[in-house]
Write a structure and sequence with these properties.
The structure is a single chain. By secondary structure, the chain is mainly α.
């Protein structure tokens, strides 16, 4: 029996033991062990390092790898500083969160006693810092990170609840989301995050920091797609579709849908995800870290071409898909933008629409889309080229 056959047999036995029925074979419980990274392999003959990296998604991972603890330590604690000097500086400027964080990391690295004692000392320092800076996002994030090493899940969840009350921020809310252990709890926190992102309090904070529209849009899109993917991997595709439809569609009850807070480019990605889920029953895998099969932070939100295939055709009624594309083009076009700019933003939708018409054997309709596009934007060379090279 070949290694591939052995792997398939093993997977089959695991699914049988877990009573999983395909295609819903995802384990929602966290692992009790951590997988080890395989040793680096030699490149195959004729294969460049760049091709190898792209194949295994390493270029994506490099972009999203968070800084190590040592890097944070070097940032917060200048070389040559002693515990006494840092303690004195923090007491002189109690409102300076960075000084408290630096002192905590110094205790964590060079404090007295064993590792647990140093951890307690660092937590004590951060606790003192929070007394003077209850609304400091940086202090709360550091405190929660160290607190989670010592305490159980329930205690950490309670502490996260305090954090989002005193210093509500997207990063702290995401920390709270990451420690939830059930699908229902994660879904509930996602709804709370979206409510927070649309709250007047957050809007006022965003106004004080001009230029954060893209960041706000990204946060909403990331949370929305996380919640949708959560429903997909738990075998609830109908709910996943409903989540996206409620966010995208304008109705009498929701004259301003959730996606009205997105930038046009993010709105295009959201519509593409909805149509992809409708037709192919999944969300694009390139959105998330390829090394983690669970929902997580977005690592790539570039517009994409769906897997249209002439042999497969389309399974969703063509009229329904056309309606979705028309709604998407209307929703993603802005009256404040020129026709050529709207065309550039909506180009991924047009390209997928043309491909859909082609695999549906509606070549005349596909040509009609191209002609209307060229008529609306005759000077857009990039649009013409992109449509001709699909």
């Amino acid at each position: 029996m070949s290694p591939n056959d052995q792997c398939l047999l093993l997977v089959s036995q695991v699914n049988e033991h877990a009573k999983h029925v395909p295609p819903h074979t995802t384990f929602l419980q966290p692992r009790v062990w951590r997988p080890r990274q395989a040793d680096s392999r030699e490149l195959r003959e004729g294969e460049t390092e760049e091709e190898e990296d792209r194949k295994f998604g390493k270029d994506v991972l490099r972009k999203v790898t968070p800084p190590s603890e040592d890097q944070e330590f070097r940032y917060f604690v200048p070389e040559g500083e002693t515990l006494e000097s840092l303690e004195s500086a923090a007491l002189k400027e109690p409102q300076n969160a960075d000084l408290w964080i630096g002192l905590a990391h110094k205790y964590l690295k060079t404090g007295a006693g064993d590792e647990n004692s140093r951890l307690d000392q660092a937590l004590n320092v951060l606790s003192r810092g929070l007394e003077a800076n209850q609304c400091s996002e940086a202090l709360w994030l550091q405190y929660l990170e160290l607190y989670s090493r010592r305490s159980g899940r329930e205690e950490t969840q309670e502490m996260c609840q305090q954090a989002v009350e005193f210093a509500p921020s997207y990063r702290i809310w995401w920390k709270y989301l990451s420690i939830q252990d059930t699908v229902e709890a994660k879904d509930n926190v996602c709804c709370q995050i979206i409510d927070f992102l649309r709250s007047p309090e957050y809007s006022r904070e965003k106004e004080r920091h001009s230029g954060e529209t893209d960041s706000h849009s990204h946060s909403i899109l990331e949370t929305l797609l996380y919640r949708t993917q959560l429903a997909v991997v738990s075998g609830r595709r109908s709910k996943a579709l409903q989540i996206l439809q409620d966010a995208l569609k304008q109705t009498k009850d929701t004259p301003c849908p959730l996606t009205s807070d997105l930038t046009p480019a993010d709105r295009v990605v959201c519509w593409l995800c909805f149509i992809n889920l409708q037709e192919f029953h999944t969300l694009p895998t390139h959105l998330w870290d390829p090394a983690d099969s669970n929902p997580g932070r977005l690592v790539c939100k570039e517009p994409f071409l769906m897997d249209w295939n002439s042999e497969r055709g389309v399974t969703t009624p063509r009229d329904s898909l056309l309606s979705h594309f028309q709604d998407a083009l209307r929703a993603c076009s802005s009256k404040t933008l020129a026709a050529q700019e709207n065309t550039q933003v909506c180009l991924p939708l047009y390209r997928n629409l043309v491909l859909m018409e082609r695999v549906s054997n509606k070549v005349g309709s596909a040509r009609g889309v191209c002609k209307r596009l060229l008529k609306a934007c005759p000077g857009s060379v990039s649009a013409v080229t992109a449509l001709l090279l699909f």
